[in-house]
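Marked as duplicate of an earlier ticket. Keeping the data here for the record.
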Amino acid sequence: MHPSATENAFAWFLRVVAAYCLLFGILYWVRLIGVYDGPLWRFDLMPIHWQIAAVTLSVFFPFAAIGLWMLSSWGPVIWFICAATEIVMYAGFPDLFGLRPLIVVSHIAVAVIYAAFRIVLHLKRRRAAQ
């Protein structure tokens, strides 16, 4: 049995999100190793709250990318941890991490699209079972 168009679209969506997670992970690594030109963007010069966030997300984003690319069930879970962390950072503590509404909105948009895909796929499977 071949996957439906919705299942194929969902797989492509997950792989696009995987690429986006890999990019975010690389950006955090760039900051950690000091290639980034911004002020206080070398690990030893970062405030402690940035050190904790950057180290955590530099590991979790690539890990999420691998899970999403392989279409594993744990990929979206790790992505959710990354997204929730960044939403809390940028929306909850803008005085510490800065205000980045585009990142917050993009994570929320990805979550809504993911939920929509899951609902549609669930309804299709339920109809097929009946």
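See parent ticket for discussion. The CA atoms of residues 31 and 41 lie 5 Å apart.
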